[in-house]
Design goal:
Shape: globular
Distance between the termini: 91 Å
Strand content: 15-25%
Helix content: 40-55%
Largest sheet: 8 strands, parallel
Radius of gyration: 29 Å
Strand order of the largest sheet: 8-7-6-5-4-3-11-9
Number of helices: 14
Mean pLDDT: 89
Number of strands: 17
Low-confidence stretches: 1-33
C-alpha cells in the first residue's frame, strides 16, 4: 500500500466519520447490540399507535335531489357515493338506448347519462323514458349537452322534462357574450323544469378565454407557476365561477353539482383536492378517457381511491373504453368494486379467492370461484329485495391447505379445495365452523346449493 493510501486510515483501521473506531454502530444504536429507542432490548415490537382504519370524514357538501317517478336519489351531504354510467348508443335509436340503459341499471348503475347532441336525439328522449318506465326501470336519466344544448332544451321541452338532470360543459358553449347567453338559456330551462345541473369542466375543452387570461396573469408574477399548474387552477376557477353564475341566474345552490375531469391520475387528485377546499357543491369524480382494459381500471382506481379515502366525491363514473363487442356494464362493476373493496358501499357478495401457485396446478378452484362470483352477481337483482343485507356477505373459494381453511373460517361461507397432492376433499366452513366435507365430481353444484340455502336461512328472515 502506498504511503498516501495509508494516511487515509488510522493504525486501528478507523471507521468513517459518525462511526466509532472499534466495530462501531450508528449513533442511534449503542455499542452493545443495541436496538432502536422505540424497541426494548428483548426483541419487542413497537407499541400500537392506534392508527384509525377507514376513510376520512366525508367532505361536507350540499344535498342535491335527483328525481324520477317518485324515486328520489340524494347526491352529496352524507348520502352514499352513487355509481353513474353512460350509454354509447345513438340516442336517436330510442329502443337500443332504452335497452342499454336497462342493462346498465340492472348491473347497478344508479344514474345513467345519455348523449343529447342532435334534434333527432332530443326528439327521442321522452320515448326512451317511456320505454324504461314500461319496463319498470326508474333509473334517472341525465342529458349530456355540448355546443347546442341551449337550442335543444328550448326547442324540445318534452326532452327537458323527461331528463332528471342536465350536464353542461361551459367550455363548449361558444365565446364571449354568446357563451354567456347560451349558458343562461340552459340554466333558465333547468329552473323552469326544476332540474339539477352538473357543471362539468374538462381539460380537453377548457374555456380558452379564461385559460389565456390566467396564463397572462401568471406570467406577470415574480415567481410564475408552471403551465400545468395554471391549467389545473383554471379548471377549478371555471367550475366554481360558472356555478356562481348559475346561482345568479336563479338556480338553487342545492341543484348544482361540479366536476373537473382530466386524464392523468396526479392531476385529477390535485384538482379535486383544490376544488373540495374551495366549495361545498357535491362533486362527481371520474378520470376522463381512462383507457381500455387493465390500464383504464388501474388508473381510475388509483385516482379515485385516493380521493374517496380523503372523503372527497359524491358520485363516480369509470370511463372505460369498451373492447370491441365488450360489455358496457363493466364500468359499473368496476365502480361498485372500488367502493365495496374500500368499505364505502356494499352491492353484491364478495368472493375471496387465492391467486394460485405451484400447489394448485389444476383449475378447479379458479373455475369454482368464477362460477360462484357470476352466480352471486346474477342473483342480486332479485336478492337485493328478497334478502336484505346479502350484499355484505363474503364467500371464500380457496385452492389448497396453506391458507384455505383459515380464509374460509374468516368468511361467512368458505370452501377449501384440495391442492396438488392433497387428499381429494373440500371442507366447507359456515360462519367460521366446519360443517361438511365435499368430495367427488359435483363439488361445484353442491357448494352452490349450500350458498343458496345459507342466503335463504340467514337473510330471508330479515325480509319478514
Amino acid at each position: 500500500m502506498s504511503q498516501s493510501a495509508r494516511t487515509k486510515l488510522t493504525e486501528t483501521n478507523s471507521a468513517p466519520t459518525g462511526v466509532s473506531a472499534t466495530n462501531s454502530v450508528p449513533a442511534n444504536l449503542t455499542e452493545t447490540n443495541s436496538v432502536p429507542a422505540n424497541l426494548t432490548e428483548t426483541n419487542s415490537v413497537p407499541q400500537s399507535t392506534g392508527v384509525l382504519v377507514g376513510a376520512l370524514a366525508r367532505h361536507r357538501t350540499r344535498l342535491v335531489p335527483v328525481e324520477w317517478g317518485g324515486k328520489v336519489l340524494s347526491i352529496g351531504g352524507q348520502a352514499p357515493v352513487l355509481v353513474q354510467s353512460m350509454t354509447n348508443t345513438d340516442t336517436a335509436d330510442a329502443v337500443a338506448t332504452a335497452i342499454q340503459v336497462k342493462e346498465l341499471a340492472l348491473a347497478g348503475s344508479e344514474i345513467v347519462r345519455i348523449t343529447v347532441n342532435t334534434p333527432e336525439a332530443a326528439k327521442e328522449v321522452a320515448a326512451i323514458r317511456e320505454h324504461l318506465d314500461r319496463m319498470g326501470i326508474s333509473v334517472p336519466l341525465v342529458g349530456d349537452f355540448h355546443y347546442n344544448g341551449h337550442k335543444l332544451l328550448t326547442q324540445f321541452p318534452e326532452c327537458a322534462q323527461a331528463l332528471s338532470k342536465y350536464r353542461i360543459n361551459p367550455g363548449n358553449m361558444g365565446g364571449g357574450k354568446r357563451r354567456d347567453d347560451n349558458f343562461a338559456q340552459m340554466i333558465e330551462v333547468a329552473c323552469r323544469h326544476n332540474k339539477p345541473v352538473r357543471i362539468g369542466v374538462n381539460w380537453g375543452s377548457l374555456d380558452h378565454e379564461l385559460l389565456a387570461r390566467m396564463m397572462d396573469d401568471n406570467s406577470k408574477l415574480a415567481a410564475p407557476l408552471g403551465a400545468q399548474a395554471v391549467m389545473r387552477d383554471a379548471l377549478v376557477v371555471s367550475a366554481i365561477s360558472n356555478a356562481r353564475r348559475a346561482e345568479e341566474l336563479g338556480l338553487s345552490p342545492n341543484a348544482i353539482i361540479l366536476s373537473c375531469k382530466v386524464s392523468h391520475v396526479q392531476d385529477l387528485i390535485a384538482v379535486y383536492r383544490d376544488l373540495a377546499a374551495r366549495c361545498d357543491y357535491p362533486l362527481h369524480l371520474g378520470l376522463t378517457e381512462a383507457g381500455m382494459g387493465s390500464k383504464g381500471i388501474v388508473a381510475s382506481t388509483a385516482a379515485l381511491s385516493v380521493l374517496l379515502q380523503e372523503g372527497i366525491g359524491d358520485t363516480i363514473r369509470i370511463s372505460l373504453t369498451p373492447e370491441p363487442g365488450g360489455d358496457r356494464a363493466r364500468e359499473v362493476v368496476v365502480a361498485q368494486e372500488i367502493l365495496q373493496t374500500m368499505g364505502l358501499r356494499a352491492f353484491t357478495p364478495m368472493v375471496i379467492a387465492c391467486p394460485g401457485c405451484g400447489r394448485t396446478s389444476s383449475t378447479v378452484f379458479q373455475e369454482l370461484a368464477d362460477r360462484i362470483q357470476t352466480y352471486l352477481r346474477e342473483q342480486m337483482p332479485v336478492w337485493k329485495n328478497q334478502y336484505p343485507g346479502v350484499e355484505s356477505m363474503n364467500v371464500a373459494v380457496m385452492g389448497c391447505v396453506v391458507n384455505g381453511p383459515g380464509e374460509s373460517r374468516h368468511a361467512d361461507l368458505g370452501i377449501s379445495l384440495p391442492g396438488t397432492g392433497e387428499v381429494p376433499a373440500a371442507p366447507v366452513f359456515v360462519d367460521g365452523q366446519r360443517t361438511v366435507t365435499l368430495k367427488g365430481d359435483h363439488i361445484a353444484e353442491e357448494f352452490q346449493t349450500i350458498v343458496q340455502e345459507y342466503v335463504s336461512r340467514r337473510y330471508g328472515a330479515r325480509a319478514i
